[in-house]
């Protein structure tokens, strides 16, 4: 009798349309039965998918595991992402010591203290956007009226990128994170953004400015420590990561909370910044919008969860599955803003964990606290089933969230 | 309770400052962890244990 080998499942897997806030159901089965197992990607490659919390943390903290997307065996997310490599290289796809050298140029700009000092400015932006919503028509798309402008304005001010250019960089960002972007489109959008940021560096070189890109230009470009292209690549990462992620968290978090009014009421009526801060951590865990895993490649043979992974094999650390692991979070599929969720891996783990997380926390805390307090009657203007969830994007969310109040 | 930090491992994510701001801070010039106190003050023990658990770089070790 011939033994039929189990088929290697295709990855990413599809979510259940009836549970748009939950990871694809097959991930739970893999986490239970085959927590380190092969999956098949768009290019036919079969990297390892790691789904348990402890294994995900172990992989992401292991110095024998590389983030260098130029290495053979690296499991590229999409054809577009694969095509962009080589054109744009920032510390997110570097290993130490290069990674640490570049990242440490920025860590002082994103400390908890510096980001807390921005809180009044973030509050001012949030209040201004809500003032405009209250004065405008209903229903309105929360993405365009609130979720996207907030982090875009903040990251523009931090980096020294003109907010007036937002239509351009929003469009280019969308192309870069679209799963179905053709290699040509992904490369084109990347080149456009790099050219734009390179021109900006030139302008800051001619006329120094007191912002992050201005400072990098003065301290790194002029001393020869970094090239114009390196600063542009770094700027691209900060600009795209700085607005896409927070915007999607605010929109998707609001959609999730409006479906669970008890949770929303706890957040709104808690009257305590600690309640809001805890709710943000739970929403990060529950939603895990970076939903196609953290991509790595093994530099040496290593054992993960009892499975031998060979040097040169690709690894995908499924942080969305890890954040729903009952071994790490009791009743993991419940949204419970009072639970202890700070150990989630929504920002990743290991040396590549999100640099901008203190900024993201301040933005989300102010946004969630203020939005529901000032718009206590906030409600979806479309049923959840009709919402255009971002199955088609590398970062999950909702394309539009029509709301009224 | 005593706490040890490794500034070479630290990546400046700031998780420890969020968990226990009375014990950990970040250096102004590069965002790397610094201890505000050598001995963990009463009331900060849980926060310091959380900091050890959530530090993405394994740069914090707690000795009870």
From TrEMBL, chain A:
PANTHER family: CYTOCHROME P450 YJIB-RELATED (PTHR46696:SF1), P450, PUTATIVE (EUROFUNG)-RELATED (PTHR46696). It comes from Actinokineospora spheciospongiae. InterPro entries: Cyt_P450, Cyt_P450_B, Cyt_P450_CS, Cyt_P450_sf. The keyword Hydrolase does not apply. PROSITE patterns: CYTOCHROME_P450 (PS00086). Belongs to the cytochrome P450 family. Gene3D superfamilies: Cytochrome P450. One of its GO terms (molecular function) is monooxygenase activity. The keyword Oxidoreductase applies. This is Putative cytochrome P450 hydroxylase. Coiled coil: none annotated. It comes from the Bacteria. Keywords: Heme, Iron, Metal-binding, Monooxygenase, Oxidoreductase. The lineage of its organism: Bacteria, Bacillati, Actinomycetota, Actinomycetes, Pseudonocardiales.
TrEMBL record, chain B:
The keyword Cell cycle does not apply. Keywords: 3Fe-4S, Electron transport, Iron, Iron-sulfur, Metal-binding, Transport. GO terms for molecular function: 3 iron, 4 sulfur cluster binding; electron transfer activity; iron ion binding. This is Ferredoxin. It comes from the Bacteria. Pfam families: Fer4_15. Residues 1-30 form the 4Fe-4S ferredoxin-type domain. InterPro entries: 3Fe4S_ferredoxin (IPR001080), 4Fe4S_Fe-S-bd (IPR017896), Fe-S_cluster_ET (IPR051269). Ferredoxins are iron-sulfur proteins that transfer electrons in a wide variety of metabolic reactions. Its cofactor is [3Fe-4S] cluster.
């Amino acid at each position: 009798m011939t033994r039929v080998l189990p088929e290697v499942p295709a990855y990413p897997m599809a979510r259940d349309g009836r549970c748009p806030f939950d990871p694809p159901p097959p991930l739970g089965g893999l986490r239970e039965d085959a927590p380190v197992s092969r999956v098949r990607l768009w290019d036919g490659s079969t990297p390892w998918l790691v789904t348990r919390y402890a294994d995900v943390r172990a992989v992401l903290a292991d110095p024998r595991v590389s983030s260098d997307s130029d290495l053979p065996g690296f499991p590229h997310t999409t054809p577009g992402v694969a095509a962009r490599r080589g054109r744009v290289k920032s510390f997110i796809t570097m290993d130490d010591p290069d990674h640490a050298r570049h990242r440490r140029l920025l860590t002082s700009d994103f400390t908890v203290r510096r980001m807390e000092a921005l809180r009044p400015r973030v509050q001012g932006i949030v209040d201004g956007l809500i003032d405009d919503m209250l004065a405008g028509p209903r229903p309105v798309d929360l993405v365009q009226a609130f979720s996207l402008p907030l982090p875009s304005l903040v990251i523009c001010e931090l980096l020294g990128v003109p907010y007036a250019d937002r239509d351009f960089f929003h469009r280019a960002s969308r192309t870069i994170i679209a799963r179905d972007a053709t290699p040509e489109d992904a490369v084109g959008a990347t080149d456009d953004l790099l050219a734009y940021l390179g021109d900006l560096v030139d302008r800051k070189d001619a006329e120094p400015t007191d912002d992050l890109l201005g400072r990098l230009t003065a301290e790194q470009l002029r001393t020869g420590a970094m090239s114009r292209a390196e600063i542009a690549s770094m700027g691209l990462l900060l600009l795209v990561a700085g607005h896409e992620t927070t915007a999607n968290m605010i929109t998707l978090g609001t959609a999730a909370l409006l479906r669970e009014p008890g949770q929303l009421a706890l957040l709104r009526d808690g009257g305590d910044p600690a309640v809001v801060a805890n709710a943000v951590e739970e929403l990060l865990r529950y939603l895990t919008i970076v939903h196609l895993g953290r991509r790595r490649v093994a530099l040496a043979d290593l054992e993960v969860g009892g499975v031998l992974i060979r040097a040169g094999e690709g690894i995908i650390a499924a942080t969305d599955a890890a954040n729903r692991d009952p071994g790490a979070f009791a009743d993991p599929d419940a949204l419970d803003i009072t639970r202890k969720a700070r150990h989630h891996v929504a920002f990743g783990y290991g040396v590549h964990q999100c640099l901008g997380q203190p900024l993201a926390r301040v933005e989300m805390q102010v946004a969630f606290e203020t939005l529901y307090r000032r718009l206590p009657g906030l409600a979806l203007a479309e049923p959840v089933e009709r919402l255009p969830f971002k199955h088609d994007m590398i970062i999950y969310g909702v394309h539009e969230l029509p709301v009224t109040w | 309770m005593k706490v040890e930090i490794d500034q070479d491992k630290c990546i400046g994510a700031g998780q420890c400052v969020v968990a226990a701001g009375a014990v950990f801070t970040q250096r102004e010039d590069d965002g790397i962890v610094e201890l505000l106190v050598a001995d963990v003050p009463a009331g900060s023990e849980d926060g310091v244990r959380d900091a050890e658990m959530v530090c993405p770089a394994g740069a914090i070790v707690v000795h009870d």
